[in-house]
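Appendix B. Chain record.
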Amino acid sequence: MTYTTLDKVKQPLDIFRGFDTDTQLALLWYGYVDIKDNLNPAPPDTVDSISNALFDNVKALSKEEQLEAQRQIVRQDSTDISRQYGALSNSAKLEFWLLLAQGMQAGTIIDVPQDYVLPEKTNEFIETVKDFSFEERVNFTRNAVAEMGYPQGHTS
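Structure tokens predicted for this chain:
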């Protein structure tokens, strides 16, 4: 599947990438909560088995390890899970994050702490993204997660 980075999401993407790792993770979660009711679940036979397998690997970890694995993906650390994630197609990367969000809802993946408050510096960013259409929000998220994970072809 081909996708493009719309001009409208380029500046918010740059802002998103400037946030710390935990803020990016929280924003991905809140972004999922915002769009989940409009998502059409893919039929089971079209689910990317590689992103599903990676999700299962993360789900098998302790809650603390699950959080650290997500952080490693965002930071592009050279770990097994981050390398596996880096090898996914961009659509599979988006699917992986959707699976994580669904796992958070189901209680199988560590959730954002109930008392977590986004930093004040995210307010303007959130207001910008709220003005996006559903398609623009999905496009933004796909672009945000596309660069995460240990880059393919990168040497340590």
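Further analysis of this model is presented in Appendix C.
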